[in-house]
Amino acid sequence: MSGATTGDAVPAGGAPAGAGAAVNGATPVEPLVDGQSAALHGPEVIPAGRTVRVTVPASSGNVGPGYDCLGLALGRYDRLTVTRTGSGLTFELTGEGSDEVPRTAEHLVIRAMRTAWRAAGLLELPGLHVVAENRIPHSRGMGSSASAIVAGVAAANALLPEELRLDANALLQICSQMEGHPDNVAPSLLGGLVISYAAEDGYRSVPVRVHGEIRPVVAVPDYEVPTRLARGLIPEAVPHRDAAANSGRAALLVHAATADPAQLFAGTADLLHQQYRAGAMAPSAALLARLRGRGLPAIISGAGPTVLVLAEDAERAALAAEEIRAFGEDPASSLDGRRVTWAVEELTVDAEGVIVETVESGELS
Ligand SMILES: Nc1ncnc2c1ncn2[C@@H]1O[C@H](COP(=O)(O)OP(=O)(O)O)[C@@H](O)[C@H]1O
Ligand SMILES: N[C@@H](CCOP(=O)(O)O)C(=O)O
Question: pTM higher than 0.90 for the full model?
Answer without folding.
Answer: yes
